[in-house]
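Batch manifest line 415
LIGAND: zinc ion
JOB: complex structure
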Amino acid sequence: MCLLSTGLWLAAVTDIAAQKISPLAKAPDWEWLDACAGTFTRSEFLRILNEHYAPGDAAAAQIRVTDAAAHIRTGPDQWKEVPFAEEGAHPNPGPVRFWRKASELPAAPASKPLKDLHIAIDPGHLGGEWAQMEARYFQIGKTRPVMEGDLTLEVARKLKPMLEAKGARVSLLRSSDEPVTHDRPKSLRAAAAADLSGNSSAPIAPIAPNAERIRLHSELFFYRISEIRSRAVAVNERLKPDLVVCLHFNAEEWGNPEDPQLIPRNHLHALVNGCYGARELEWDDVRSEMLGHLFTRTVEEALPLNETLADALAEVSGLPPFTYFSNNAKRVGNGPYVYARNLLANRLYKAPVVFLEPYVMNSSPVWKRLQMGDYRGVKSVDGASVPSLVSEYASGVAEGLSRYYGQERKRKMED
Ligand SMILES: [Zn+2]
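JOB STATUS: finished
ARTIFACT:
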């Protein structure tokens, strides 16, 4: 469930040395753009910018394209020029990245398609004692409470040995409900209060007294922004994996968490980073991060990865695709399951990110299976023999990753 997870809507702008910086972010150092000269031809740059990252001319105020170069806004009146490669010329490789494409990995036998691949798994949210605060909790009567953060961790634990058996090195971004961030709502009160006072239009319902708004906002700063930023530090500075798999479960509006509504609908989708809006691109840090993905060509790896994993999950689960009707997401790729959308996690992690949103937790069939917990083998549910839901989820992800990395590496083995 990734509702509102960009963290941008709460979004006051911090004016540090005339730069516009999103909450808890650092001002970007634009020097990195120097390594991007000649990475893209003009036509290729315009295609990826307009079709994938900033559809609907969303970057028009921030990126000016002339015949020879992209001019990128780095401040109110500052621009940096990134020259294009000549059409037909061999482009520069672009800025240094730590992750490897499937095509850059050595040959591997069919039994070990993930050999030496470093996979970071991000079990979405926190769960446990934080589940109610992060609004990823509901319970029907005295039944087993449903907590997204606990479920994603259960899937992650199941998935890790499956991937290791296929040769992968696997890092979990968390292994309990202990937050990765050292911040807590209390330590973020001042930042949250400043954010609220800097933006009177913050779309949080005005709750009197003011102290209550600040409490809610500082909680949001904690579990949504600081926590994901801390995981990003682990990914980008310590782990440096070849990809990150973000595990989530979806949900639809359930109303009162003490008396939630179950619905018949159930579906699946995956989110690749992209589809930034004009307002989002006004933030210097967000713009820099988007361009980081663009110039390292992350989407060329992330899109087929998301497609392959979504297809494999659809096969094991039988789930139909979810359809977005909002304009902050755009369907991309060849199949029906993958959307481009700018989330905090798939933007901050400087690697291809697969962001999975299968199973609607408050759909009747999913809720029924979640109540059964994890188990070995299959059990009968409504006349069908099915594995536990966490096993099914983990096996779909393992199959998708094996398929994506295995094909090319096996071919190399046969050459
Ligand atoms: Zn989620």
